[in-house]
Amino acid sequence: PAPAPAAAAPAAAPAPAPTGKVYVVGTDAAYAPFESQNAAGEVEGFDVEVVKAIAGKGGFEVKFVNTPWEGIFKTLDTGERDMVVSAVTITDERKQTMDFSQPYFNAFQLIAVKADSKVAKFDDLKPLKVGVQNGTTGDEVVQKLLGKTSANIKRFESTPLALKELENGGVEAVVDDNGVVQHYIQNNPNAKFKSVTDAGFTPEQYGIAVKKGNAELLAKINGGLAAIKADGSYDAIHMKFFGTKP
Q1: How are beta strands 43-44 and 105-107 bridged, if at all?
Q2: Contact call for residues 110 and 175 (beta carbons, < 8 A)
């Protein structure tokens, strides 16, 4: 509810030029703790708080719109979204079609398995049925191991759905980013999962995506991000969601 009065304010009193611009942020709100919807249907989470803090420093406003992961990046080209913030890993492939801010989160892949599983490393997944969220970097690394067309890769619309399938025995492992896997394991103790990491996993960095060539917005985002990292407010948000400083 917060952004509505702010967006309406310029009509009543002319706002100074730099403010009053509301940027629409696309996020797939099915990826706690980075982005999810609360009972009132508002989007919340680590990414949301980081971007709101950046906007506060950058002198602009943001409005979050829940957007399906499938096709989320196309909304930048069509102008439906000004930025996409959705635990998006910066990759060379993605850089060809969009521009990224400086990184705001370090991530790595984690394997979730049942507590009694014998899986100790990524290679152990070769003969198993593995759940992934469709189109994620987890999906990509599992394809490299099992083969692009492997029938043992089960794709889901969200990671919690994949983890639910692990609980029900429909898959034997799930591969996804550390933040979302750890959050699920912490909040679902009855599932009796453990996480396994592998030294072979490449560290990843999340960035805020904008339309290719949108240098003006990118400069505002990077300026705001540098400011929240410098004054400790980024660390405070990280502490709130992950219990540690970055």
Answers
A1: unpaired
A2: yes
CA distance 155 to 53: 34
Measured over the CA atoms of residue 20, residue 84, residue 241 and residue 203, the dihedral's sign is negative
Closest-CA residue to 184 (of 34, 64, 66): 34
Angle at 232 between CA 181 and CA 177, to 5 degrees: 15
pLDDT in tens, the chain (246 residues): 544 444 444 444 443 445 568 999 999 998 889 999 999 999 999 999 999 999 999 999 999 999 999 899 999 999 999 999 999 999 999 999 999 999 999 999 999 999 999 999 999 999 999 999 998 889 999 999 999 999 999 999 989 999 999 999 999 999 999 988 988 998 899 999 999 999 899 889 999 999 999 999 999 999 999 999 999 999 999 989 887 788
Residue 156: helix, strand or coil by DSSP?
Answer: strand
- Give the per-residue pLDDT at 20: 61
Q: Give the residue among 62, 69, 64, 60 at the shortest CA–CA distance from 28.
A: 69
164-to-55, 171, 193, 243 alpha-carbon distances in Å:
35, 9, 11, 25
Bond prior to 33 in cis (omega within 30° of 0): yes
DSSP secondary structure code for residue 90 in this structure: P
